[in-house]
Amino acid sequence: MEDYPRNQAEFEARFGSEEACREYVFRMRWPGGFVCPRCQGRRGWLTKRHLVMCPACGYQCSLTAGTIFEGSRKALRTWFRALWAVTTPKTGASAMTLKRVLGLGSYQTAWTWLHKLRRAMVRPGRERLRGEVEVDETFIGAPEPGRHGRRIIDKTLVVVAAETDDRGIGRIRMRRVPDASAQSLDLFVRDAIEPGSTLLTDDWPGYAGIDGYKRRPRPIARSGKTASQLLPRVHRVVSLLKRWLMGTHQGAVSHEHLDFYLDEFTFRFNRRTSASRGKLFYRLVENAVLVPPTPYHTMVKSLRGRKKADHKL
Phi and psi at residue 129, in whole multiples of 5°? Predict the structure, then answer.
């Protein structure tokens, strides 16, 4: 049974102590009961040193080892407040907002925490999209005068897929790709969409050779309609994505880290109809105990020699 606070008052009452947060992490990490990694024993409890003790073999393991919380010097209560602050607003939170809300000592700490949480927004082994799926690409970045179409080179190309749900939008997937070649599009489609599904695309030849899928191209030039009219769901998602990047993050998103912002937007969009925002908190904690830790230096390794923070697109 899913167990999560429904509102701010419940959250504060539920997670007012470090012990309550540890117990919640314990249950989320071992929902079927503790299993000792050494002897496979089925019993275990938290010690005063915050380790999980197996009485069968005496093995002790860290409660947070192998999770995004590993190695953190901050209390789990602070992490839980971060999780709540990120998941409960519909638009999320920027690093500056998180720094202010949690009273963190530096912008770098808030930025790092947000990126750790974004990595936990992709559930390992998540199901692919299925049925009829619109697929198209868009460019994220500042305007480039004199350049048009898929040959713009200084922006970031993002491919977007959106399930059809009657006249509405089902689940989505999106990813940064190096180009609109058949190879790049093929890799995305196979990772994001279940084989046998129907791809609704424009007439770009990059989609023509993807085996294992039905394809219904919608040529724009001969239709007399715009791309947003022929593929309305994808273009609606793209419009919301760009508005979110500019509104919540003021466009201050680096090309190198864009994938993780796309993951956050996808996480939020696919749960937009949840009756309680607390369920997003639950899902993120659930993922956070499954996703391995990512140290700060690995997050910024692609930015060495440059300012180690987000740069405007």
Answer: -65, 160
- Class of residue 154 by CB neighbours under 10 A (exposed 0-12, middle 13-18, buried 19+): exposed
Mean pLDDT within 73-83: 96
302 to each of 121, 177, 264, 308, how far by Cα in Å?
A: 21, 17, 20, 9
> Measuring CA to CA, which residue among 143, 171, 189, 178 is closest to residue 234?
171
Topology of domain 132-241, per CATH? Nucleotidyltransferase; domain 5 (3.30.420)
Instruction: Identify whether the C-beta of residue 226 lies closer than 8 Å to the C-beta of residue 220.
Output: yes
How far apart CA 28 and CA 2 sit, in angstroms, is: 10
What is the Cα–Cα distance from 46 to 51, expressed in whole angstroms? Answer: 5
**203 and 285 Cβ atoms separated by less than 8 Å:** no
How many of the other CB atoms lie within 10 Å of CB of 73?
4
The crossing angle, in degrees rounded to 10, of helices 258-269 and 278-288 is 130
The sign of the torsion formed by the CA atoms of 41, 46, 51, 57 equals negative
CA dist 305 → 99, 189, 300, 308 (Å):
25, 34, 10, 8
What's the CA gap between 26 and 289, in Å, rounded?
A: 9
Tokens 């022929």 sit on residue: 230
Look at the block and give the residue holding tokens 């922006």.
Answer: 155
182 Cβ contact partners less than 8 Å away, ≥ 6 residues apart: 205, 206, 207, 208, 209, 210
Amino acid at 48: K
Given the structure tokens 């936990």, which residue do they identify?
A: 120
- Segment 116-164, tens digit of pLDDT: 999 999 988 899 999 999 999 999 975 545 555 555 456 899 999 999 9
The residue to which tokens 């920027």 are assigned = 94
Neighbours of 146 (CB within 10 A): 5
